[in-house]
Structure prediction request, 188 residues.
Amino acid sequence: MSAAEGFSAGQRAKLGALTERLAPNDAAARAVCLADGIGVRHLARAIARRALSADPHLALCAVLKVDPVTLAPLRELARPPRAVAGPVAWWHLAVGLVIKREVDRIAIRDAAARVALSPATFVRAEQGRAVSTDAFFRLCGFLDLHPHDATARAGADPHEVAAANVAVTSHVRTAAAAGLGCFTGDIR
Prediction:
């Protein structure tokens, strides 16, 4: 499964089974979850195989030490993703969506159709507002980002976030700038 495919009911069931290891009545498990920003309701929703929003989903996967997209243990991945820095930086994702769409010269409807989302959801994400986990994964696939790369420490400076993601997105920026005939070197 890739990020572009979203998050299916089967994946929710798998996450629920993994979450059952963290018993909701266990004080230690509850303390870990609360420390990582996962509320008791989020934990109960995951155990009940219900959908979570993107931030609690990423935090829960970090606690369980599994990849948020494939739910495979991180130690089994050939190239583990960067750690979750914090909640999803919706503004960062929004800027990426606008730039990608403008560089590719595609309309909102066409971009939304590429990721199998409604245009309203795509616009919502372009405005920096939170969307569902499924939509978030599809948008990350559209941007060729792992979901962890769309996170930032709370209150992070936008320049820090951009610098942390340069290695991840440099191939996209360079190709886009070269396609537009832009100067891509450093100005000294």
Q: What stands out?
A: The chain has two domains: 3-75, 90-179. The radius of gyration is 17 Å. The CA atoms of residues 113 and 146 lie 20 Å apart. The first helix runs from residue 9 to 19.
